[in-house]
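Known limitations

Structure tokens in this collection are predictions and should be treated as such. Users comparing against experimental data should check residue numbering before alignment. To illustrate the layout, the record for Synaptic plasticity regulator PANTS is reproduced below. The input appears on top and the generated tokens appear beneath it.
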Amino acid sequence: MVSDDKKKVEESVDQNNVEKNDDKTDNLKNRDSEWMLRACRVYKEEYDDCTSFRGRFQQNFVYGEKLDCSQWKTDYDNCKKWKKTDDDDAYTELVASEKKRRLERLRPHYQNNVWEKREEPPKDWNAPLPDYLVQRNNNTFLALKQADIENNRETSDMLIPGCVIL
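Generated tokens:
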């Protein structure tokens, strides 16, 4: 009887551990957007830069007014909360903020209707260069160094790791 009760307790503990592991796995699965999040110190640095004298001066020069820096502070707080307590709400808000920031950054690209966007590269994208470009680049420093490397020739200046100004 005692062994049966012990088995039931062990099974329930095992079941709880499995459920907890499943929850963690679900959280990890749901966190597909974690790649876009920055380190918490970066949010703090962005906030400090935004509120600094230099940052305010540049904002006033570029935009004619001070920008609202509170989102960087909110993101920093959410990042800290998420890292310390694994808070799903903080994670969700942080991802939403990054998506909004990314959309704002890419908005001019999406609104650009001047250029026709390609689906694939041109068929001759890797064709050889025209003769006039090959001749023009024949005696450049990079071409000579490339030839040295291809012929396994080491020159004395390749062995010197830096530059000395006298």
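For this record: Confidence is low (pLDDT under 50) at residues 16-29. Residues 32-111 form one domain. Please report discrepancies through the issue tracker.
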